[in-house]
Design a protein that fits this description.
The chain has about 200 residues and is an alpha/beta fold. It has seven helices and eight strands. The strands form two sheets. The chain has a four-stranded mixed sheet with strand order 1-2-4-3, covered by helices on one side. Strands 5-6-7-8 form a four-stranded parallel sheet, with helices on one face. It is globular and about 40 Å long. The relative contact order is 0.13.
């Protein structure tokens, strides 16, 4: 699982955590996580984690398509024994996962949202980084057009993938999994009724 970082979108956050737990419970897949980390100087790998150094400037990463991080990821994959059978890239704006193509490993991309809409909302909150937001959409376009398979977690994400990015691979809508250990986190400390239904929003 190729992730943008250890905080936002990391393995300890929903919905990635529940997905990893569901895969582990299946007994058929051994998941590993590959995470960008600006706090380290060299690639670190153990049985379940691959940490890839990321440049301090996220803007520079977006502007050149995460070229340095992509090379480090590809080099790490070449040295991994045995190599992974599949790379699952989350959030296609972070295009370092294309390092998998550099070593001939197929890539599945999951869209948890729409990169174009995310860029618009990021710009509306902080009008400054227009170029960075534009390049994040361009990165997502490159990733989605080359992906071997595309998964969307909702009808909205699936429709936006087909309408905006038009990937060559078929877009499949697969909701995020819930596992028995999943916990309810009420929004804004809202009261959770003991005898009524609870709506859980994932993705």
């Amino acid at each position: 699982h190729c992730l943008p970082g250890s905080g936002w979108g990391g393995a300890e956050r929903e919905p990635i955590r529940t997905l990893l737990e569901a895969l582990e419970q299946s007994g058929e897949i051994i998941p590993q996580t590959a995470v960008l980390d600006p706090a380290i100087q060299s690639t670190f790998f153990d049985s379940t984690h691959l940490l890839i150094p990321r440049r301090a400037s996220l803007s520079r990463c977006f502007l050149d398509g995460f070229a340095a991080e992509r090379k480090l990821f590809a080099d790490a994959l070449r040295n991994q024994v045995p190599p992974p059978d599949l790379i699952h890239l989350h959030w296609p704006q972070f295009s370092h996962g294309l390092g998998g193509f550099d070593v001939g490993i197929p890539i599945v991309v999951t869209m948890h949202d729409s990169p174009l809409d995310c860029a618009f909302w990021n710009w509306s909150w902080r009008p400054g980084p227009v170029i960075v937001n534009s390049f994040s959409v361009l990165n997502a376009f490159r990733v989605l057009r080359r992906a071997n398979a595309v998964v969307a977690v909702s009808p909205y994400a699936a429709d936006r993938a087909r309408e905006v990015f038009r990937p060559h691979a078929k877009v499949r809508m697969i909701p995020c999994p819930c596992v028995e250990s999943s916990q309810v986190h009420p929004h804004n400390n809202a009261h959770v009724p003991q005898d009524g239904g609870v709506l859980a929003l994932l993705g």
